[in-house]
Amino acid sequence: MKEEVKYRQDIVHFGKLLHERGYVAATDGNLSVRLDCQRILITPTCISNGMMRPQDLVVVDMQGHKLGGQYVTPCKVPLRGAIGFVAPQEMLAGRQPQISAHATANSTPHA
Fold first, then answer.
1. pLDDT for 21
2. Structural domains of the chain, with CATH
3. pLDDT surpassing 70 at residue 13
4. Helix H segments across 2-111?
5. Helix and strand counts by DSSP (H, E) for the chain
6. Distance CA 39, CA 35 (A)
7. Which of 77, 79, 87, 98 is paired with 37 by a 20 to 30 Å CA distance?
8. How far is residue 92's CA from residue 6's CA, in Å, rounded to a whole number?
9. Is the dihedral of CA 60, 1, 85, 99 positive or negative?
């Protein structure tokens, strides 16, 4: 399994790509990864995907309680714990329907 530092870098990288390609606008959607069976690393609320830094990410438990980080956590975390992390390690959720569909299907959107 990747280390948390690498996951933070990856989430920031892909957040910027999603923003640059127009898949999400500003603060739309969240990126997250399950660090282990108890913790999720997730993008915070109200931070642009195109401007995130690794230290901006938040660690929460599977119920959405913040364990680390300075920013507010998304309210969707319990849903991610119930649905998104059953099979895939990483999960992407966007407010655009096609992004959420790709995340649910565990597939990659085409540019």
1. 87
2. 4-104 (3.40.225.10)
3. yes
4. 4-20, 77-79, 97-105
5. 3, 5
6. 5
7. 98
8. 17
9. positive
